């Protein structure tokens, strides 16, 4: 048919095939959307919209972010959620509440959205302590988003979109921290093993709800060694880690791995990648040179012993070089540490990334 076309028609044909290629590429993008659930390790600003005491939208947070802006991220620059989106070639995900609170509701969730909230946990006790958006409430929000996608695309196209999407989950640390605080509403005689049992009894129902709302690819980032955060180290005279808390952080991770494996054996259309943040962070402390770190104990920003006694506040001291510190504040890694963590979430091999990494998960 080509020989019937004059040059104008050929040109139009070229433009149209170009457009079809572009649209096709978009539609076939390996991972069309990313949905993030979790706590302050991945909150990109949801807590700016709620009445929580746990906020990060003030200096020195964000000191290395675009325009040195404090956005609600609990770190000096980008956090894990930003790097995960970058790795997937997706635009940075907006915080869910920034969209629903916007005056114009022309919101699209086609590329995903971030539900994470600083202080969030698995347990209701944690919610009562930190007044954050609990994992249960985040899933409620996701359920609303799911409904909007079905309205917009229809049920089949929504399922197709969601089954290729990544569902990132980072949760559990605040349940542990809540337990450590004496103000928790947990019964006073609760032991750490009972706490872990409780968390592991609630989490499967939460993951199942996400699965029932279309999720098929889960990327779970496990708990770090909570006993080695500057906050916990600052309680020890010689700045050592709290080994008991570390033991139970590690145990939580092992139980989550088993839980995901069990979930996959019951639902063979689901796949997952679990990242062992525990081992990764311990490796930072044990081999700092290998990662370019020179300070693994002290927080960059904060006050008191190891700058681990307060959050990063406008009146806090802060370090001049954020790239050589593992910790930004008393609990949270620096951008430099998040970057390495997410590199290994995507490219790492066992035992860090189990049974596959997120790059492999995305390609399924
Ligand atoms: C809605 O808000 C977004 C972001 O604030 C803006 O970019 C967009 O132009 C607005 N749309 C309408 C229809 O006003
Ligand atoms: C904690 O103590 C209460 C009574 O004060 C008791 O009823 C409960 O069984 C105890 N819980 C555990 C886990 O031991
Ligand atoms: C400090 O930590 C070390 C290692 O975990 C532990 O053996 C020691 O008892 C701790 N000291 C104090 C005062 O907590
Ligand atoms: C997950 O892996 C299984 C094989 O174990 C495969 O049959 C299934 O299609 C995969 N699911 C997705 C969403 O890729
Ligand atoms: C900051 O730390 C990084 C990583 O250790 C190092 O490469 C860099 O040279 C340091 N910058 C300054 C100004 O000291």
Automatic annotation (TrEMBL):
Q: Does the keyword Hydrolase apply?
A: yes
Q: Which Gene3D superfamilies match?
A: SGNH hydrolase (3.40.50.1110)
- Superkingdom of this entry's organism? Eukaryota
Transport in keyword set: no
Task: Give the record's keywords alphabetically.
Answer: Hydrolase, Lipid degradation, Lipid metabolism, Signal
Coiled coil (UniProt feature): none
Give the residue spans that cross the bilayer.
none
Q: Biological process GO terms, please?
A: lipid catabolic process
Query: From which residue to which does the signal peptide run?
Result: 1-27
Q: Which GO terms describe its molecular function?
A: hydrolase activity, acting on ester bonds
- Provide the family line: Belongs to the 'GDSL' lipolytic enzyme family.
- PANTHER family per UniProt: ANTHER-SPECIFIC PROLINE-RICH PROTEIN APG, GDSL LIPASE/ACYLHYDROLASE FAMILY PROTEIN (AFU_ORTHOLOGUE AFUA_4G14700)
- What protein does this entry describe? GDSL esterase/lipase
Origin organism lineage: Eukaryota, Viridiplantae, Streptophyta, Embryophyta, Tracheophyta
